[in-house]
Amino acid sequence: MLRLLMIADDFTGALDTGVQLAAHGIPTQVVVGQADLSACSSTVLVVDTETRHLPAAKAAEAVARLTRSAVENGVGCIYKKTDSALRGNIGAELAALLKASGARNLPFLPAFPQIGRTTKKGVHYIDGVPVNESPFGIDPFEPVRCAEVTKLIHLQTDMPAQNLRPGETASDKTGILVYDAATAADLETAGRQLFQNGTPPVLAGCAGFAAFLPELLGLSDGSVVETPQLDPRLLVLCGSVNPITLRQMDTAEKAGFTRLRLTPRQKLEPGYWASADGKAALAEIEQMLAANPAALLKPMTPGQPAYRRLRRARGIDLDGLRVGISGSVGQMFGALFGSEHLGTLLLTGGDTLLQCMNSVGARELEPVCELESGIVLARFTYQGRTRYVITKSGGFGQEDLLVELADRIAKH
């Protein structure tokens, strides 16, 4: 029976939230696109609506349609998963959920203090810096313009929104209720207050608050999923432009990871990997994977002069560049999928993850466990072969994350 529906706007976010339930042994599915809730046999279903880059009105309609289906099918609780840095159509999607659900109010807990993302007096911070002054404020694809959460919400909706302290009662309030949280204990306090009179029909937040849902919903029996044994060979496909991930890549290369740099043609020419040149390049990549236990592939470089010239020459806007590069990397991944030299995968960025899954016809990933906060291990099966993939958002993890993960996988 479906007890909890989670609605995310990108693939990595769907996984880092769904794993909060899956890691406790709770049956959890993560799928892309609209889903038939009446046919779902899982306890928890996470749907990635792929609405982060859509116009606000289209994003709102996708969320409203899924919410109405959940209400019609008697789903007890709907959780709108938001980005922990407040990227995407926050106001439009929260308002759509609240209106379509018919609920009186929508408690929104945007903080993820477990990784340094907090909300204090209604202002959202990344490691103590207001989010609009952090690297997320200059993101080339989805910059966050405002750190005051209610103001950010009101950029896309006139739905009432107000700020609340941890533990403050919500029963007599209407609209979107933004909760402060500086610590994980603040999230837990807010959760206990919200659930004291039963399960709220709608909630919103990121993986930070979702970590408390197994207990609050009474779904956990106390068990924890163990990390399975992984192939010690690691290939990192980086689709993020976040400075945090870029530093992780540089640190890994200095530590001995082999780095493969794709040419503009390889990244953007339609059908390249099926051409004679593309097949020759794939053979070289396979040789590289065979000779190196850890490798990096960094395809996304939108700010470099060569790419600005290429965009102008081909009439490609920035969003077209994002989609074109991630699609090309997905095609490359599909061509390499059956290689005996392809081991454990680590994918950063929701676009890259989605295109890689599309290339092998996989619409669903099964989250297994967290390797650390925000770093998710998942698996999928295609043509009889099961692959493990580590996923993370571009802004997650310490500088030596890739090196540490490679060492841990090899030792395990």
If you had to describe this structure to a student in words, what would you say it looks like?
The mean pLDDT is 89. A hairpin with a 2-residue loop joins strand 6 and strand 7 (123-126). This protein has a 15-stranded mixed beta sheet, sandwiched between helices. A three-stranded antiparallel beta sheet has the order 6-7-8, with no helix packed on it. Helix 2 (56-72) packs parallel to helix 3 (90-101) and helix 12 (318-336) crosses helix 13 (350-359). With 412 residues, the chain is an alpha/beta fold. It is built from 14 helices and 18 strands.
Q: What summary fits the major beta sheet?
A: 15 strands, mixed
Helix content: 25-40%
Shape label: globular
Measured between the Cα atoms of the first and last residue, the distance is 35 Å
Structural class: alpha/beta
Gyration radius, rounded: 21 Å
Mean pLDDT: 89
Portion in strands: 15-25%
Poorly predicted regions are none
Number of strands: 18
> Helix tally?
14
- Work out the oligomeric state of the chains in this entry: single chain
What attributes does this structure have?
globular, 412 residues, alpha/beta, 14 helices, 15-stranded mixed β-sheet, 18 strands
Topology at a glance:
Elements: E1 4-8, H1 11-22, E2 28-32, E3 44-48, H2 56-72, E4 77-81, H3 90-101, E5 105-109, E6 117-120, E7 123-126, E8 129-130, H4 149-153, E9 161-164, E10 175-179, H5 184-194, E11 202-205, H6 207-210, H7 213-216, E12 234-238, H8 243-254, E13 258-260, H9 264-268, H10 276-291, E14 294-297, H11 305-314, H12 318-336, E15 344-348, H13 350-359, E16 364-372, E17 375-382, E18 385-392, H14 401-411
Parallel strand pairs: 1-3, 1-4, 2-3, 4-11, 5-10, 5-11, 9-10, 12-14, 12-15, 13-14, 15-18
Antiparallel strand pairs: 2-16, 6-7, 7-8, 16-17, 17-18
